[in-house]
């Protein structure tokens, strides 16, 4: 019963729905912000409705310590976004998740430190903040490879701990916590930050997921959702200011503390992480098998999973 | 001064120059005063603003200190009541109840500390907007307070901490949590004591002590988040860095970072085209309070002083201009009068009155100089008048002399049977020393002579007159030219005390036989133009110029001329005529001229064309000797 108290905020739709519209409950993995701009645009511009979908965008409360998978487990969500590695870990436990679209070609995970660092190795023995709900696995891969031990401090958000000098460094996403820190400190010199992709640990990030059961019973809905979502992201690329207007609308409705310049920077970074380094265009590449197997190995060695996640069932 | 130039008085020019320079001095002084005033006023205004800000700081810190001291005291006493639920609940209620600014109070324990089977234990009392206080036990998987920053920061640092501001549970107000770590008697961390302070009073206190009426006071948290702001939507949503980052304003960003680094200070930055002056100081909880003042807030005194100084300077300059112009006009009145006199004099009134000035120094010197100049000019003009009258008289006399002299010479020439002759003289001055003589047909003879007296002007003219008159003695007798020259030489020599002489060529042509008897008294050789057009000089014995020695034995000669030939007699004014390059006309040029005379040319045409040839050669150069040309054309 401890998981009964969940805070789901219902986003009021701005148009009436026809009787044939298929209801879809969609939840992004974090609070309302530009990280999910494509979904908000698809909803607001009627791309989902055009596909015959009545999409509800649900957000978790900003004070909750739950993550999106808790809501999936409760059966409160049909389609959701999540980070690849945490999805693999979750799938290894329940075996019912399917990656239906890989949006983030790069995770954007990085580290910001109060002391100058050349590598994450320099944080040996230091207090490093990370999310209580996961997402730190790439840093742990590094620690394992380089035999580094850090004093991990789990928290909902480590920003205030970092600003209060309670921790020496913190993991953050380049499109999220990093930007909040930048607006709280004014400047973060290069020698105080490092990206794990620059250390050779480049892995895909955010993706779109559903459960196997939902996919089997609603394959058309999933296809239409993907189609409308892609359209939403394309529209966001071409119409940044309008996209920001839409994002800020969702932010206000969810009482999130932020501002437009911060969301603008987040949108730019998220789109950058979705862009292929080769084609300079947004691509939705299927997860690479070798990368997937490498992640399986890392996760098993770290004890996150006992047996490898099945690529064929996990990746649609 | 041209007629188009506008007359500008000396007083006006001088006054304007004085005003320009004085204005320059005023401007420099104004700039200097402004700079010094700005510095002084800036320091004073900064001091005032800091003082006001300090009052706000003291008032705010009074509240913050009361909260922190209560929390610290309770946190210290809590370990002994660790398991007394009733006391703990009452305590949180009592804390909330004792001050309206405290909206909630919580005590949270480490996992399983309260009871071995109870992971979460957090007691929290809240005061709602109606003043009702409710107390509840909190903590769950969904509200896992162990991972909230208000719990983690004091736990990790072991110190009390003013957390970043946030919205209250109701979302209607802004609160700041003060959290204190609780340690047991062994110094082991066992939980956190938390007090939530409502911040709605902050803006009022900040405004109450703001340095200037139009100034804006802001309070920002340690992370730069606006805790108070005139634009409410910025509170908690934006940080002090949002604007500079959005505008990519590196300088402003650096200023903000400096302001946030703590301490007391002031800075300035441009916004909307005007400067803003910021004084700031940090509060004991690490937040920063700042007063943003406009230019007018800081420098209204300087503006007033500048306006006053400018008005005084402007009026002063006008007064100075008017008075200086009057003074200069009075002082230079004498100069003006002298100037009018000078202008009158320049227009020909050399007796214009030059006023007696009362001034001393340069003006008096000018007056005396003008008077002296006037006297000198008048004297000069008097002399000039006399000289001019004398000159006019001489010129008149010379004109008469010229007329008389010319009357000596043959003037009427007409065609005669067997020959045609013509002669002309062009004196270098009013009167000359050249002469020619022709006597028509004494029997079968034609007599002619050409002479040139040494020197020029009146003496030569008188000598010429004597020589010419001498020919009259022989006009009725048939003398050989040799005898004529011999006799004339004796006549002239007899009274020639000045040693003057005359070159003289005298000839007698037998018109029947064309034999020419001649005698040359030191004169230029005759030019003979043969009937075929060829020309040559007549070779003649030079003898000696006439008038030098009495009884000089002049030798005569005879030459046979051809029918149809021409002869050209001349003086050295022809052969020695100079152009501007100092080249002489010369005997070769004369011979060339003679060789080119057209067959049908009359004697007058020969003489006129030779004059023309000489004048063209001289090309405007002054004639420096008398020129005489005499020509005879003999019939074929």
Characterization of this structure:
The complex is a heterodimer of chains A (316) and B (636). Chain A has 316 residues and is an alpha/beta fold. Chain A folds into two domains: 8-106 and 204-314, 3-Layer(aba) Sandwich (D-Maltodextrin-Binding Protein, domain 2), CATH 3.40.190; 109-199, Periplasmic binding protein-like II (D-Maltodextrin-Binding Protein, domain 2, 3-Layer(aba) Sandwich). Chain A has helices at 37-44, 47-50, 68-73, 84-94, 137-146, 159-163, 177-185, 212-217, 219-238, 240-253, 260-274, 289-301, 311-314, and strands at 8-10, 22-27, 53-60, 79-83, 97-102, 109-113, 127-131, 151-155, 169-173, 193-195, 206-211. In chain A, strands 1-3-2-4-11-5 form a six-stranded mixed beta sheet, with helices on both faces. In chain A, helix 1 (37-44) crosses helix 9 (219-238) and helix 1 (37-44) crosses helix 10 (240-253). The longest helix of chain A is centred in the C-terminal third of the chain and has 20 residues, at 219-238. Chain A is globular and about 60 Å long. The two termini of chain A are 33 Å apart. Residues 1-18 of chain A have low confidence and may be disordered. Among the domains of chain B are: 202-298, Beta-Lactamase (2-Layer Sandwich); 336-390, Helicase, Ruva Protein, domain 3, CATH 1.10.8; 409-634, PPM-type phosphatase domain (Phosphatase 2c, domain 1, 4-Layer Sandwich). Chain B is 43% helix and 22% strand. In chain B, strands 1, 2, 3, 4, 5, 6 and 7 form a seven-stranded antiparallel beta sheet that branches. A five-stranded antiparallel beta sheet of chain B has the order 9-8-12-11-10, sandwiched between helices. Chain B is rod-shaped and about 185 Å long. The two termini of chain B are 74 Å apart. The model of chain B has no long low-confidence stretch (mean pLDDT 88). At the A-B interface, strand 8, helix 6, helix 7 and helix 11 of A face helix 3, strand 5, helix 5 and helix 6 of B.
């Amino acid at each position: 019963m401890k998981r009964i108290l969940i805070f789901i905020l219902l986003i009021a739709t701005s148009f009436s729905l026809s009787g044939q519209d298929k209801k879809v409950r969609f939840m992004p993995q974090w609070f309302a912000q530009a990280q999910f701009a494509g979904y908000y645009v698809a909803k607001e511009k009627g791309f989902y409705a055009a596909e015959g979908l009545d999409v509800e965008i649900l957000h978790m409360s900003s004070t909750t310590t739950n993550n999106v998978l808790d809501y999936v487990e409760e059966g409160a969500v049909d389609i959701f976004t999540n980070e690849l590695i945490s999805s693999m870990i979750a799938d290894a436990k329940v075996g019912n998740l399917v990656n239906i679209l890989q949006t983030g070609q790069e995770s954007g995970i990085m580290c910001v430190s109060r002391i100058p660092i050349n590598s994450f190795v320099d944080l040996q023995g230091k207090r490093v903040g990370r999310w209580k709900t996961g997402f730190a696995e790439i840093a742990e891969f590094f620690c394992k490879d380089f035999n580094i031990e850090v004093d991990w401090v789990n928290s909902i958000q480590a920003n205030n701990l970092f600003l209060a000098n309670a921790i020496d460094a913190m993991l953050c996403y380049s499109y999220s916590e990093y930007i909040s820190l930048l607006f709280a400190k004014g400047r973060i010199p290069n020698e105080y930050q490092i990206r794990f992709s620059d250390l050779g640990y480049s892995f895909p990030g955010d993706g779109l997921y559903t459960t196997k059961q939902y996919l089997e019973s609603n394959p058309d809905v999933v296809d239409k959702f993907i189609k409308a979502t892609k359209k939403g992201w394309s529209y966001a690329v071409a119409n940044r200011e309008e996209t920001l207007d839409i994002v800020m609308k969702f932010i206000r409705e969810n009482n999130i503390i932020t501002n437009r310049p911060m969301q603008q920077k987040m949108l730019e970074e998220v789109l950058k992480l979705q862009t292929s380094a080769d084609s300079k265009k947004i691509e939705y590449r299927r997860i690479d098998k070798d990368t997937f197997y490498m992640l399986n190995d890392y996760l098993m060695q770290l004890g996150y999973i006992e047996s490898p996640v099945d690529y064929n069932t996990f990746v649609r | 001064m041209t007629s188009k130039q506008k007359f500008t008085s000396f007083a006006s020019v001088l006054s304007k120059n004085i005003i320009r320079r004085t204005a320059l001095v005023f401007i420099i002084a104004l700039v200097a005063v402004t700079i010094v005033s700005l510095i002084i006023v800036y320091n004073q205004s900064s001091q005032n603003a800091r003082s006001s800000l300090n009052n706000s700081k003291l008032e705010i810190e009074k509240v913050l200190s009361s909260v922190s001291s209560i929390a610290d005291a309770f946190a210290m006493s809590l370990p002994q009541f660790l398991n007394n639920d009733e006391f703990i609940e009452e305590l949180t209620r009592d804390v909330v109840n004792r001050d309206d600014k405290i909206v909630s109070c919580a005590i949270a324990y480490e996992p399983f500390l309260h009871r071995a089977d109870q992971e979460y234990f957090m007691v929290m009392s809240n005061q709602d907007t109606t003043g009702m206080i409710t107390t509840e036990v909190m903590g769950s998987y969904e509200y896992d307070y162990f991972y909230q920053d208000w719990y983690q920061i004091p736990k990790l640092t072991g110190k009390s901490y003013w957390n970043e501001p946030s919205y209250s549970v109701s979302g209607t107000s802004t609160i700041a949590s003060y959290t204190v770590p609780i340690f047991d008697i062994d110094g082991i961390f066992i939980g956190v004591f938390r007090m939530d302070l409502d911040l709605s009073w902050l803006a009022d206190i900040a405004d109450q002590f703001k340095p200037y009426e139009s100034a804006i006071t802001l309070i920002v948290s340690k992370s730069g988040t606006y805790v108070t702001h005139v634009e409410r939507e910025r509170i908690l949503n934006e940080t002090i860095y949002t604007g500079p980052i959005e505008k990519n304003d590196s300088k402003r960003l650096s200023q903000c970072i400096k302001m946030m680094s703590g301490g007391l200070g002031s800075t300035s930055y441009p916004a909307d085209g005007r400067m803003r002056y910021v004084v700031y100081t940090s509060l004991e909880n690490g937040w920063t309070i700042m007063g943003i003042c406009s230019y007018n807030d800081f420098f209204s005194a300087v503006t007033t002083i500048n306006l006053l100084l400018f008005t005084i300077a402007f009026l002063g300059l006008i007064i100075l201009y008017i008075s200086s112009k009057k003074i200069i006009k009075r002082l230079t009145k004498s100069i003006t009068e002298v100037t009018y006199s000078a202008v009158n004099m320049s227009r020909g009134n050399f007796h214009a009155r030059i006023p007696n000035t009362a001034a001393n120094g340069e003006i008096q010197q000018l007056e005396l100089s003008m008077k002296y100049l006037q006297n000198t000019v008048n004297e000069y003009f008097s002399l000039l008048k006399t000289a001019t009258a004398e000159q006019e008289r001489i010129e008149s006399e010379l004109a008469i002399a010229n007329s008389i002299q010319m009357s000596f010479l043959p003037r009427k020439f007409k065609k005669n049977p067997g020959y045609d002759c013509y002669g002309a003289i062009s004196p270098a001055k009013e009167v000359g020393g050249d002469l020619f003589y022709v006597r028509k047909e004494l029997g079968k003879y034609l007599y002619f002579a050409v002479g040139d007296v040494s020197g020029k002007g009146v003496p030569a003219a008188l000598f010429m007159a004597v020589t010419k008159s001498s020919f009259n003695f022989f006009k009725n007798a048939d003398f050989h030219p040799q005898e004529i020259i011999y006799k004339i030489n004796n006549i002239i020599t007899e009274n020639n005390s000045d040693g003057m002489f005359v070159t003289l060529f005298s000839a007698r042509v037998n018109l029947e036989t064309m034999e020419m008897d001649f005698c040359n008294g030191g004169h230029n050789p005759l030019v003979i133009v043969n009937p075929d057009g060829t020309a040559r000089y007549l070779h003649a014995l030079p003898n000696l110029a006439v008038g030098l020695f009495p009884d000089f034995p002049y030798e005569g000669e005879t030459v046979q001329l051809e029918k149809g030939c021409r002869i050209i007699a001349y003086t050295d004014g022809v052969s020695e005529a100079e152009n501007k390059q100092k080249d002489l006309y010369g005997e070769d040029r004369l011979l060339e001229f003679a060789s080119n005379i057209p067959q049908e040319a009359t004697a007058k045409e020969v003489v006129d064309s030779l004059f023309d040839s000489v004048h063209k050669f001289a090309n405007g150069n002054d004639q420096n000797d008398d020129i005489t040309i005499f020509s005879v054309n003999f019939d074929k």
